[in-house]
Amino acid sequence: MENQSESISKVGSKYEASQIKVLEGLEAVRKRPGMYIGDTAFRGLHHCVYEIVDNAVDEALAGYCSEIKVIIHVDNSVTVVDNGRGIPVDIHPVEKISAAELVYTKLHAGGKFNEEGSAYKVSGGLHGVGAAVVNALSKWVKLEIKKSGKVHGLKFERGVATKPLEVLGDLKDEAETGTAVTFKPDNEIFEIHEFNYDTLANRFREMAFLNKGLKITLKDERSEKKETFHYEGGLVEFVEYLNRAKTVIHKKPIYVSESREDYEVEISLQWTDSYSEVLSGYANAISTPGGGTHISGFKTALTRVLNAYAKENNLLKGIKTNLTGDDMREGLTAIISIKLPELQFEGQTKDKLGNSEVEGIVNSLVGESLKKYFEENPNTAKTIIRKSVDAAAAREAARRARELTRRKTALEMGGLPGKMADCQEKDPAKCEIYIVEGDSAGGSAKQGRDRKHQAVLPLKGKILNVEKARYDKMLANNEIKMIVQALGTGVGKGNFDISRLRYHKIVIMTDADVDGSHIRTLLLTLIYRQFPELIEQGYVYIAQPPLYKYKKGKKEDYIKDEKALEEFLVANSVDGSAIKIDGEKPEDEAVISLIKKYISYKKTITDYDIHFDSHLLKRLIENTELSSELMKDKVALQKELDSLTEYFKSIETETLRNYSFVIEEDPAHNTNLVKIVVKTTARTKKFKLNSYFLDSPEYADLINLFEGIKKFVSSKFIFEREKVGSKEFDSLSDFAEFVLADGKQGAYIQRYKGLGEMNPEQLWETTMNPDNRTLLQVKIEDTIEADQVFSVLMGDQVEPRRQFVEQNALNVKNLDV
């Protein structure tokens, strides 16, 4: 042991006071950002936006803010504007700097520590580090504060104020107040730099639901996308929104709002005929995905009250098994929101509520209110009890099915599915399993894989949709049984054990077509509903087989999809070329961005030819004043239609189409509509133009897309490259088409339809080789939105799925029909 000890290399023989380093100011945050925002990847980047918006929401909780605007700029900086009281601008009596500079440069400085005279009764940002942390992790931050009749400004660079707070000007309305914060995350710290619009939109939708009456607007200047979230119904509307794709078993959500001293409890809940529960908790409008004492208090109260009601009213006759909390919460959608003065979270990322007193308060207040509700609404109570009794019966049937499956597995199947090719390694941390669509691709994967670390399980056909099936039926499906066998964890509450998992990378590998997407969705539905811990632990991945192969000379590139191919072709052409727009030479990135916007605009317009007319739509967006308001004025509308008729007559030889427009009254909506007939030599197409379409988000998106390129539509472009020479273009469309064609020049582009088209070597090189492959890790950033997606796409309700298809149909590419 002595020799072994001596062989260990020592970092240093001395450990003295001089070696203790004190990180001053915000240096600690920049040194260890994960301690404050969780990580420096996707989650941490978006958490910075949440911190600033949470401060604005705190103003709303205090009753001083009614509107928040969030803008994502082209350079991925973000502006958050609120109409609250404005950050204090006076000089702090102790620190001798402005209060605004203080809260953005000092940790644990703020007005939310709830001492006597505190500016906030309740708030989400109780640690006093949010603003300072965002400042520390940003390349720069700009503050603009409206207060006391003045506009004040302050700028920071990497956490340090460039100069003291200054007055920028006077306000026209002296009563106007508010704060605008613009920050640019520091690329030296963050691994991911692109904000995701949908991630932010989902978060702000939740905030608007949780703060009834608060208006939150999100705008993305990169794509010109914009949404406003504003709900007067609060949590009741929230639950109705969550259950829009499900069949509810009682019409109106149950709503509870109670308070005790400084604690306010607000809950809305509704049961559906689904087999999973959605239980989301919030503390001072901050999501707590890790749960906490408010959730456990609610569960206890619900189980106690329902059990007591069922026994008192003899609703459990003939039931052999006792009802459990899980039985009672099957199909339940519930939002639990609590507001309290002193929040205790596990870490700055506010994942789990820790206040011990909250459990008893929620248990007591909710229990009393639910008991009163069930007594006043006996029919609803009996419906819920019947649903719970059915759940208990299904649980017992599933237990028997599981026991039968376990016996069959041991006696008949010998441990692993017959079609599966296992790997040699036995350490789960080093093992990965590819779940592959079809025997053909499975055969290529088995031949091309690394046999030591990679296992392959081919699936035949499509597995059962578990969103529509109860547990016992699921266990009878052969493909699902093979997956359960292969993973080794068991399945179901009380039987699942993640420590028995045989592979720490579970890779779903399907074709890049409609069937492949459907199979992938079915597999993700199974994992999300029955093995959620696998996603939570980060074990589930989606393979990204390339859709295209680009070959030019000896150079070969495998490209993921059509969008990536277009970006690749444009970048290929622009790289090494000299380009001028209206006599000025822009950066290559600006040229590439402009062409990408044009391509997106053109494709979206063209896609409307299926059920509208692309030429007409383009004219409506670019050259008319047509709006839902104008549709009400028959005279003005006719004038606009006459102008359209003259225009299309003048270009009839180009379009080879003849247009006619007839106005009809639309009394149901107190407006007019236009019947349109478009004739070509091949066919006649008839459709209607109404106010609904002109007010639709899709039409607004098209207008926003055009706004992004409008300035350059008729610009003069010059393209120069040594082998191409100099070429001039009089329009953006001609220039963009040339650049795309130039990127293809001399290249061979192959499109793969399925994995089976690749030989084992290609499949290994592009999709399975750890050195080259791209894997998407499946994460649940938003549990509510995840549940919504699975419910909408895989549930029984047709109407929400139809709406989803209509909203996203124009984004579909490479559709195989």
- The rounded Rg comes to 31 Å
What do we call the CATH homologous superfamily of the largest domain?
Answer: Histidine kinase-like ATPase, C-terminal domain
- Which residue ranges are poorly predicted, with pLDDT under 50 across at least 5 consecutive positions? 1-23, 113-117, 409-414, 809-817
What class, by secondary structure content?
alpha+beta
Structural features:
alpha+beta, Heat Shock Protein 90, Ribosomal Protein S5, domain 2, Rossmann fold, 4 domains, five-stranded mixed beta sheet, 28 strands, 39% helix, disordered N terminus
Could you give a quick summary of the protein structure above?
The protein is of the alpha+beta class and 817 residues long.
Question: Would you mind describing this structure in some detail?
Answer:
There is one protein chain. This protein has 817 residues and is an alpha+beta fold. The chain has four domains: 27-230, Histidine kinase-like ATPase, C-terminal domain (Heat Shock Protein 90); 235-365, 2-Layer Sandwich (Ribosomal Protein S5, domain 2); 415-545 and 762-780, Rossmann fold; 556-756, Ubiquitin-like (UB roll), CATH 3.10.20.690. 39% of the residues lie in helices and 20% in strands. It has 28 helices and 28 strands. Strands 1, 2, 3, 4, 5, 6, 7, 8 and 9 form a nine-stranded mixed β-sheet that branches. Strands 10-11-14-12-13 form a five-stranded mixed β-sheet, with helices on both faces. The chain has a five-stranded mixed β-sheet with strand order 16-15-17-18-28, sandwiched between helices. β8 and β9 form a beta hairpin. The longest helix has 36 residues, at 378-413. The termini are far apart.
